[in-house]
Amino acid sequence: MELFGTGARRICAVVAARTAAKMAVQVRAALRETSTVELRLDWLRSDAERSRLLRWLKRTNSRGTTFLATCRRLPGGGQLTGGVQDELHWLRQARQAGCQWCDLEIETLRELPGKSIRGSALPPRVLLSAHDFRRTPPLGRLLNSLARRDADAVKIAANAKTIADSLQLLRAARHSKTIVTVPMGDVGLPARILALRAGSALAYAPVAEATASGQISLFDLKHLYRAHKLTRRTEIYGVIGDPIGHSLSPLLHNTGFVARKVDAVYLPFLVHELRDFLRAIPELGICGFSVTLPHKQSILRQLADCEPLAAEIGAVNTVVVRRDGSLYGCNTDYVGVLRALEKKLRLAGSRMLIFGAGGSARAAAFALARAGAVVVICARRERAAKELARAVGGEVLPSRALRTQFFDAILNSTPVGMHPRAATSPLTPRELNCRIVMDLIYRPQRTQLLRLAAQKGIATVSGVEMFLAQGIAQWEIWTEKRAPEAAMRAAVLNALRCEEKSRSRR
Predict the structure, then answer these.
(1) Of 36, 85, 346, 371, whose CB is crowded by the most CB atoms within 10 A?
(2) Complete domains list, the chain, with CATH
(3) 58 belongs to the catalytic site
(4) CA-to-CA distance for 487 and 465, rounded, in angstroms?
């Protein structure tokens, strides 16, 4: 018997707002997705608001719902400004309102008489929690300390600075069905998604505002990542990069998995050190992964084998993990560039400027050179620009000469202008002398560079076209199935439209 039930009941919706009215709205939204709800009473702005919420809860028909009350104090990372007795008071009030569970910090327990919860009139079941917002501590001693207390379940929430830290927390979840493990921080985000698969009794997800770093929204945890449905048979894929929060690759690939009923999930891995991720591949059971900045070239040294074209380009954006654990690399950025541009102009004989000399620039340069275009490289790193130009039989152009040269197309392959710093452009209007401007950035869909080009009457190509083409090619390499292109394209374009509307309303 699972502690909190099975399926979606193991996803705990976190309800947190400054007023009782807003929290009530969040509770209703939460109950459309799960029947396990954490009420962050400490987030309410006053005792009066806490009283209002609990009176509302008492009147609400909550049959079949598990409410977990939390009133965390400031020293424990919460919002409650009072002391231990204030925390206990509101947890007792929560019991009277119908909360079956409460979250009690181990620091609070240590201040109770006899360091025991007996006779404290708390909700019937207690989740004893330990938080470390700085690091992932050695977990063996901490687990033993928590297990010796009078609690129905224990929770460890720790900041995962590395993927290795995340693995520690996932291993801890396997010890017992009464353990909740919560990897915090952006590096720990994939492990949050995999926590239920590892055996954690709960996985937390906010209905609205995040209450801890690395949290995933309730809707995404349930529908995009399907955390409650992942098993040991589920194939794991992902994207590695730094930064990675902007990536829509999880939406693209997971949409494909759902549409084709493939038992697989695609996760975003923030990877500072490549070896930290590579060491985790066997334990997580990763079958393949996408590679983005800044790892597209450095990953080459870790591969057992590589397709000839990717080796020639000198950059890999797609990796297959073979059955023996070895890595095979290929490059689908090449396909993406060609598909995006060949609809707009005849590539053979065209003069094309690539701004930048990184992994994406290399794929674009080789693609265009093979298609018969004259390739010109302009980059801040002069040595890299010369090396790339030499590799494709192209030219190098210093940035000071941009205002005096004309091109059939200019491609930006730098990250300048990427979400969330979308107000910047790598080139000025006076440097845009061409028929077409393409930005390899796809988020936002209309970058500042493309806006400047449109204002000059220049045709534009969004990076979303390349993103879709290269991602769909990846999906087919991994699954060996025909990708549901229409569904994948619609999901990404809809997300970008919604983001654009939200930005325009601000």
Answers:
(1) 36
(2) 7-232 (3.20.20.70), 237-333+470-480 (3.40.50.10860), 346-467 (3.40.50.720)
(3) no
(4) 15
